[in-house]
Amino acid sequence: MKTIFKRVATLILFLIGLSILIGMSDVYFANAIQNLIDSIVDLNKSKLYRYIFLLLGFLCIQFTLNFSLTIVASRLTEKFHILIKQKLVKYLINGNRHELTNMTSSEKLNLFEYDLELYEQYYFQNLISLIQNIFVLGFSLSFLFMTCKLMALTVVIATVLVIFLPSFFGKKIDYLTSQYSSSKSIFLTKLTDIISGYDDIVSFCAEKSFYMNASHSIKKMEKDEKNMNVQLGILGQVISTSQYMTLIACFCVGGFLVFWGEMTLGMLVASVQITNSVIQPSQQLSTSILEIMGSKSIRNKIDQIINTQAIKIDSDIEMTRQVKLDKVSVNSSENKKLLQDIELTFEFGKKYAVIGQSGAGKTSLLNLLAGNYDCYEGEILIDGSLYRKDRGQLNVTYVRQSPYLFKETISKNVTMLSNHQTREINDALIKVAFFSDKNIDEIAVDSLSGGEKQRISIARSYLKKSTFLLLDEISSSLDFQTKQTVMTNICEAMKGTVVFVTHDLSKEVLTLVDQIIVMNNGRIVGMGDYRTLLDSNLLPLASTE
C-alpha cells in the first residue's frame, strides 16, 4: 500500500494545499460576515458596501478553490482506483498458486464486487475527507478562540465527544462488516454454482433444493446487511443529536455574552457561522474515523493481498538442464499422503510418461512440478540449486485436461494475448492442433468440441516454447488416430523436457518417450522404457481395466 501512496503523493500534497486555503477562506468569510453585520448595526453605509463587494469576491475565490479541490480529489481517486485494481488483477494472475486455487471464483469476484468497494468507500475516501476537514476544523477553532474563548471551549468539548464517539461503535461495526462480506461471498458462490451447474440441476430435478439453499444464503446476507446498517444508523443519529446540542449551547452562551455587552451581534453571528464550520467537519471526521475503524478486517485483507510479493514471471529464464526431486513428500489439507518419498530426475530434452491407476498420484506429481504446492518435505533441485518459487527458476507450462478458452478469437487463445507473427501462429495451429481453416478466427470458441479445445491448449504450449512442459491427459478427448499424431508431433516438436500423464498404455504412445514412470498410492513403483516395464510385468499396475 505504501508504494501506491507514494505514486499519488503529489496529488495528496495538492489536496492538502487546497484544503488549507479553503480552511483559511472559511475563517475570512466568518470575519467578513461579522464586519458586515456590525456595519449594519452602526448604520455605516460605506463600510457596508465595501464588505458586500468583498463577500462577492470571496464567493468567486471560494468557488475556484472548491472546484479545484473537486478536480484534484477526483484525479486522486481515479489514479488510486487504477493502481489498486491493477495490483489485485496482478495478484489474481501471478499470486500464490496454492492460495488462489483454494479460492472460489465467487470469492475472487467478491474482492472487486464488495471488498474493494468497501475499501475505497470506507477507507480511501475517508482519508481524503480527513485531509479536507482537519484543516477547516483547525482554522475555524483558531478563529473561535480569538473571538470568544468561552464559546470556543464549549465547541471544543462537544467536538471532542463527537470525534471520539465512534470508538465505542468501531469494533461492533467492524465485526458486522466482516460478517456481511462473508455472507455475501457465500451467496455469490451458491449463485455461481446455480449458473454453472444449471443443466445438471435440471437433469436431476434438484431445482427445489438448490432454490432453498440459495434462499437461506440470501436471508443470511440481507440480515447481516440490515444489522450493519442499523448499527450505522444508530451512530449517525447519536452524532446528529450531539451536533444540534452543540449548536444550541453556542447560541445560549453567545446570547448571554451579547446581553452582558461582551460580544457584538456581528461577533455572535460570525461565531455561530464558524461553529457550523466546526460542527460539519467534526461530523465528517467522526464518520470517517468510524468507517475507517469499521473497515479494519476488510482493509487488512486487501492490504495483505496488495503487499503480497508476486511470483516472478520471466519469459527469459535460462534453459533448465535438470530437475531433481529428492525424497519429496506432499500431504493434502486433510493430512492425506498425496506423494511419498519421490526420487526422480528429469533431464532436458527427454520425454517422460507418467502412468498409474486413478488416485495413484500422477496429477499430484504434475502439480508439484508446476509449483502448485507451497508445503512439501524433501528438496527440489533446479540445475543443482535449491528451488525457490519466488526466484522463478523454472519456466513451466502446464496443459490441463480441461483447458479454458477465453472469449477471444482462436488465434488470440493460442497466443494468450501475446504478440506473435502470423506465421508462428499458423505453424502451431497446423503442426500440433491440426487446424488448417484459413478463416479460423471466425469460428466461435464456444462451438469447439472438448478434443478441439485440448488441441488449442497444446498449440499454446508449442508456441510458448517452454523448457519444461507438463501435460495432464491431454489426449483423453481425442480419437485414436488424432491422439497418435498429436503425441508424435509433441515429442518431435518440443525441444525441452516433456512430462505427460496418460491412461493410454498402448505401445504406440509409450514407445514415444524416453522413460515411463509407474505410480501407485503416491509412490514410484517402477521406471524404465516400454520394453523394460513390459518384461518386469509393471504395466498391469497402471491398467484401469
TrEMBL record:
It is a multi-pass membrane protein. InterPro entries: AAA+_ATPase (IPR003593), ABC1_TM_dom (IPR011527), ABC1_TM_sf (IPR036640), ABC_transporter-like_ATP-bd (IPR003439), ABC_transporter-like_CS (IPR017871), P-loop_NTPase (IPR027417), Type_1_exporter (IPR039421). Pfam families: ABC_membrane (PF00664), ABC_tran (PF00005). The chain crosses the membrane at residues 48-73, 127-145, 151-169, 244-270. Signal peptide: none annotated. It comes from the Bacteria. It is found in: Cell membrane. Keywords: ATP-binding, Membrane, Nucleotide-binding, Transmembrane, Transmembrane helix. GO terms for molecular function: ABC-type oligopeptide transporter activity; ATP binding; ATP hydrolysis activity. This is ABC transporter ATP-binding protein. It comes from Enterococcus termitis.
